[in-house]
What we know:
The structure holds two protein chains of two kinds.
Chain A: H1 8-18, H2 47-59, E1 66-67, H3 80-86, H4 89-92, H5 104-121, E2 125-126, H6 133-148, E3 152-156, H7 161-171, E4 177-181, H8 195-201, E5 206-213, H9 223-232, E6 236-241, E7 259-263, E8 279-283, E9 296-300, E10 306-310, H10 317-320, H11 333-371, E11 376-377, E12 386-390, H12 394-403, E13 406-407, E14 410-411, E15 422-426, H13 433-445
Parallel strand pairs in A: 1-13, 3-4, 3-5, 5-6, 6-7
Antiparallel strand pairs in A: 2-8, 7-8, 9-10, 11-12, 12-15, 14-15
Chain B: E1 9-10, E2 15-20, E3 23-28, H1 30-36, E4 39-43, E5 50-51, E6 56-62, E7 66-70, E8 75-80, H2 83-86, H3 90-93, E9 102-106, H4 118-125
Antiparallel strand pairs in B: 1-2, 2-3, 3-9, 4-6, 5-8, 6-7, 8-9
Amino acid sequence: MAYSPHTDADRQRMLAAIGVASVEELFADIPSSVRASRFELPPPLVEQETRAELSRLAALNHIPQLSFLGAGAYRHLVPQVVWEVIGRSEFATSYTPYQPEVSQGTLQSIYEFQSLICELTGMEVATASHYDGATATAEAALMACRLTRRHRIAISTAVHPQVRRALATYCSGLGVEIVEVAADLADGGSGLTPVEAAAGALGDDVACLVAQQPNFFGGIEPMAELADAAHAAGAQLVAFVEPVSLALLQAPATYGADLVAAEGQPLGIPLSYGGPYVGLMAAPMSAVRQMPGRLVGATLDGEGRRGYVLTLQAREQHIRRERAASNICTNQALCALAATAYLSAVGPAGLREVAELSTIQARHLAAAIESGGCGERRFSAPYFSEVALRVPNAARRYAVLAERGIVAGYPLGRDYPELADTLLLAATELTTDDDIERLVDALGETA
Amino acid sequence: MPAYPDDLRYSREHEWVRAEDSSATIGITSFAAEELGDIVYLDLPAVGTRLERSATFGVVESVKAVSDLYAPVAGEVTEVNEQLATNPELVNSDAFGNGWIVKVRLDDASQLDDLLDAAAYAELTA
C-alpha cells in the first residue's frame, strides 16, 4: 500500500478550510504544563536498518527451553487450522462490523463465538469479547454494581493479583470500594476462599463477590457455597474462570454464577509475552442491557433469510456517550476468531481431553517433585492443572534454573509475602513426562 | 398547537405529573414519545427508590435514541408500570394513560407549582 505523507501545501489547505492559522492552534485548549515539550526520537531508519534493529530487539527475547509457567496464561497446542482461519485476508482487518450489509461473514463468526462461550459457561448471552480476562472481570464487577445499584465489590485474594490490580484501576475514580476476602494461606491450609469469610465481607451495600475457578493457586473453590453466600446478602457472584477447565468442572451457570468472565487465551491463542489475548464475558439475558461491549444478534432480513447484526447498540458509547455501559472496552475480533476456530476444531471431546491430560500431568508433576524430595504441596484443596509447591530456597533455585533455560513456574512470593518459599507450577497436555523428569533433576541438583 | 390534558402538570424535560393528594403518577408526554420514535425499552427504578427533583431516575430507549428520564418532583417510588417491561410501546400509543411510568409518594406537593400547566407546555412545544 502506498504511503503518501501530507505536504505543507496540503496542511495549509486543510487549515484554511477550517479557519485555523496553524496546527499548534488546534492544541490551544491543552495546558502547556501537561504537554510534552519535545520528543526525543532516534533519527529515521531505512527499511534494511529498521529490519536489522527489530531483529536485534527480537533476539533479546528470552525463550525458555522448558517452562512450567502458567499463572493465568497457558501453553496449549494450537492446531494448524486456527492459523489457517485467522490468516484469511477477509478476517485480517476485522474490526467492529457496523455495516451488516457488507459484514455478514465477520458477524457470523462473532455470533458463533458468542454461542460457543454460552455453551461453555451455560449462560444465556455472551459478548463479542473484551481486551483480556482482567478487564472482562473488572467490567463484570462494575456491571454487578449497576445491576444491584450498590457500590462495593468483594474479591477473594485467591483471585489473580493482576486481575485484582486491573479491578482497582477500574474502580479508582468511580467511588466504588473494594473489600478483600482473605484466602486461607495458612500452613496446611486449603488455599481456598473461606465461605464464612466471604459471607462476613458481604453487607447490604456489596454488589458482588468475585471469585476465581480454579483459583490463582489452581485450587477448586466451593463456588456453589460462595454463590449462596453472595445471594443471601443480595449480592451477585462474579465467576472468573479458566475456559479449558470448563470441560471438566461445573459450568458457572450450574453453581449459580450471575456473571462470568474469563481469559480466553488458552483457547487457541499462543503465548506471546502477554498478548494480545481475549476476554470473555457471559450473563443471563435479563442482564443484557447492562452488558458492556459489542453484541451480535441473529435476525431475518426483509426476505426472511437469516442474517446477523450488531444489536442493543444503545448500551454503547457511540450512541450513549458518557453514560454507556462502558467507555473503555472494545472487542478482540481476531483473537475471538482464533478461539472460535480452536473450539470448533477440538470439539467438546477434544477440549475434555486437553483438560484431562493437563490435570493428569499436573498430578504427575506434583508427585515427581514430592517423591524427588524437592518440595511438597503447599495447600490441601483439590486442584486443576496448576499446583502450589513449597520448595526450600525457592528463590535461589528458581534463579539458577532460569539461567539454565528452565522456568520453574511462578514464584508466589512476588504477590504473597507469606508464600515466599512457594512456586506455582502449571502443566498442560504439552507437558511431557520427560519435561517433568528434567525439572525434578534440575531442582535436585540445586538442593 | 397540540392540546395536552388540563389536569396534568408538565416539566420542561417533557415529563408529566398527575397528582392525587400526596401521591403522583409520572410519565413522558405524547410530544416526547413522538420525538423519540418507537420506544423499545425502559430502564426503570425499583419500588422504594428515592427520586430527587431534576435528577435522572431512568432511561428510555427508542429505535433512534436513548434519553434520560428526569424526576419532575421529589418523592419515593411506590409503584412501577410493570406492563412497560413487555409492552414499552404503550408509551407511544397512550402516553398520558396506560403508558404511565412510575407512581411516587410526594415529598412536597408544593413542588407541583413550579411545573407548567397544559397551556404553557403547549407553548413550549409549539
